[in-house]
Predict the 3D structure of the following.
Amino acid sequence: MTRSDRSQLRGAVAIVGAGESDWVGRLPNKSALTLHMEAAHNALADAGLRKEDVDAVFTAGRNMANEVPEYLGIRPRYVDGTQMGGCSFLAHVEHALAGIVAGLFDVALITHGESGYSRVGMPATRWGDDSNNAQFELIYGYAGPTTGYGLVATRHMHVYGTTKEQMAEVAVATRKWAALNPRAFLRDPITIDDVLSSRLIAWPFNLLDCCLVTDGGAAIVVTSAERAKDLPQKPVYVLGTGEAVSHQMVSQMPNFDRWDAAMISGTQAFSMAGIKHEDIDVCELYDAFTIVPILALEALGFCKPGEGGPFVSGQRTAPGGDFPMNTNGGGLSYTHTGMYGMFAIVEAVRQLRGECGPRQVPQAQIALCHGTGGTWSSAATLILATEIP
Amino acid sequence: MQTKVSENRGQALKPTPETRPFWEAAKRRELQIQQCHECGAHYFYPRPMCPYCLSRNVAWVTCSGRGRLHTFVINYRPPRHYASDSPYVIGIVELEEGPRLMTNIVGVAPDPKALRCDMPVEVVFEDIDENFALPKFRPIP
């Protein structure tokens, strides 16, 4: 197989179980590891598997590759603690695919748990005083994602004329999906004016341009397509995967008016899946801020560079629109623990299984998940489907 | 050398051997970056090898101090212990020599109407304690 030919991997593995912590939101009585445990328990039960069946554990976070197996009482023979931010879990699916195809293990458990709001049992996150981040960014009062993601929004507005109203369209549409999800943290309808008049966090972002900060966990189980046939759930096949990293500090971002990492991950995923954009029925695009899905739509090729703002206008991504996006209510309104990517995967799985009740996208057969990590630093893309075309 | 938290607006700053020349130059009111003598590229932040071609044949050069404001945000929510008046402007400046860096834009109202991507800016140095001066940028009239 040549380096560019990923198509032979299409449909080799499937997601056979998906679950979340018992609840998501504000959970001051549960540590991050308990949120992992609940999610893993629920995902394994969903898959009809026992923890003894798991031989590979994937998770992201400092020390988590040691801590999670210990807490769950699993002794994996394959471990992957790749930490590239909130899209890590999407990349883990690609890594699990590689390991399963190579015959290194059979059943991969990918887990996420984060006490993002309550900060119970969370590792410290402070940069060292001698880190490059401290010396060349934090010293200027850089405040992390609320400021770093906005640098791209400002440049995109300058180059392409993207407006704050177009960004607000994303928040309004996503809230409409959340209203259909009883587990969503914020469910009351909002208007574009509500977004524009919410308090300023870091111009060009107002409060309602920013994702939530919550507690929660989510997990999935991945195995070979062959083994998936013997398990109780309808398999969700992995048609395409891609991942990329372009920088760590946002000041090192190669281009501020486009998302290079997402262009790479998306190209890989589409070439492997062998499908067209119009074949995709539902998209789950990590929405850390309203500008992020707009850049993702451009980078993934759903529209041309600069057309992301017009693309989301007119509530096109809302329930009833022709481009269903972030159907659980997203990081903006459903939940955002800090590394949201796993929730995007779980929602895609549920949509493809037809389990979403009032927010179900009719006849959803192919879904795209896409995540960001760090500050536009990394990206990972998955194309999932009910059948292998 | 290392700043104390109370003197430095909440973020302590401690150079590494690789970055110390940058901070020593800033103390002398010089903005220095590195240039690769192999491929010719200027680059920032400081590293002992060129990030474009991995050559070790690199040297410090003093910049003109002029550039353009590539992009910016106006922050209303300073990090905890960061004792600046908010709002304040965090900018990415593209230096005449090519590399970009994060900085604060000063000498201008923290207002999107007063700031514009690609506007010309020049470096000014702000002493933050007895050891460190911080390069910031202001609009060139």
In short: Residues 13-139 of chain B form one domain. Residues 1-9 of chain B have pLDDT under 50 and may be disordered. Strands of chain B lie at 32-36, 42-43, 58-62, 66-75, 88-95, 100-105, 120-127, 133-139.
